[in-house]
Description:
The chain is of the alpha/beta class. The chain has helices at residues 3-20, 31-40, 52-67, 116-129, 145-154, 162-175, 178-196, 198-210, 226-238, 240-248, 259-282, 293-307, 314-334, 338-345, 358-379, 403-413, 416-429, 439-445, 451-460, 468-471, and strands at 71-79, 85-94, 100-109, 136-141, 158-160.
Amino acid sequence: MNTISRKIALDQAVLNFIITDCQPLSIVDSEGFRELVQVLDPSYVLPTRKPKKHAEELERVKMEVQQAVAVSITADLWTSLNMEAYLALTCHYINENMQLCTSVLGVKHFPQSHTPDNLAQFKKGMMDDWAITNKVRCLVTDAAPNMIAATRTLQIRHSVCIAHKLNLLVKKSCDQIPELSSIRDKSRQIVSFFRSSTTAKEKLAQVQQQMGRPILKLINEVPTCWNSTYQMLSRLHDEKEAVWVSLASLPTDLTPLTADECDIVREALLVVAPFHQATVELSEERRVSGSKVIPMMKMLYCALERNSLHLHTQAATHLHDQLGRRVTDTASNLESLSVLTLSTLLDPRFKTLGFRSSSKCSEAVNRLKVECAAVIARTTSEPQPGPSSEQSPVPGKFKNLWQRLDEEVGRQTNNATADSIIEVQRYLAERSIPRSEDPLTYWGNRRTSYPNLFHLALQFLCTPASSVPCERVFSKAGEMV
């Protein structure tokens, strides 16, 4: 490879790194990154922060987004350490190759007050810049009232981030159990001690090594994030023997969890483990995930019922009951949201199997038939007249022999409702595909078999389950550019 070709290849590799890992463009100016590149290849000169390739990539993505049948948006607000607010929007769509794609529409400084009107105006401006305002089918945000109100102002379907919903659901349930709250407080003190004391940290590592266990640090709890509570208790429970031995030989008044407390932790972890799995899975952005929300809530209820057979402590039983009531209420609300019910039905892995309520399922199927009929009405041309129907009958003369048949065929062709019922029923009667298969591959192969449902699948299967893809934009340290 000659010098010019190598330069182009390295430039492309740096650009791909920035795009793939969602890094700020300013990384090419950071001292540490430049030193790393210099060590790897002293002859290579990094490109500027505004390379020509960036403009080309931006235009390519804009064109791909604008060619999509429909898009869904996630939005999130973030405040920097300097107390400056930023608003980010990500766009999710299915491209012509039947691949689910995600693009960052922008990250902009948001100095205005966070009122619904200001948020709505800001979001609309960003959508107008990308010429996708009329393509947006759903906006996914957290449950903040101003975010929800802004979506109503924009007159766009709204879906609350399921990761946030599950987080609040589990957090509220745990907070209702005094014994569990006491254990969490005690666990936080133990974890803080081992993470803040070098002596304690080294002692724990030494004991773990002596016991033939991997050296693992204890995990801190973040009060606003339930998943961190699960991880803290799970790690502390797994390492309880090593923690007991370490505390016994360290100068501290802290006591380890008792045997009864460990039993409560073990059973509580059993109860909430499915919620941890659901949160992680539904936060993925490269898979069709919006259609999983309703079936996942049904599976969470089933997991709660299954795990209840193994509960013996009163605290874990109360936690199970709290979660069961909240899951039932949440599932009922979600099964009434058209954007989620339609995406579930249009996912060939779930269809009607994903619903817990048979009445809500029937309502969703009827809604799908209405949506399908609307697509047919928009795309079907006016029926052509019969061979002789253009000729006006002459009084006293014999009429066209085929006139009656031609009229009935015309009525059948123009009956969008009947056609939609047939197409929906044929699709639902097909056997569901395995959960491991890609629903977009299915629809790519069925675009001629179910042409109108295929069009709807492009609209609804691009909806993400959570706003986590947008939050990841802010997870990178450093300046956002």
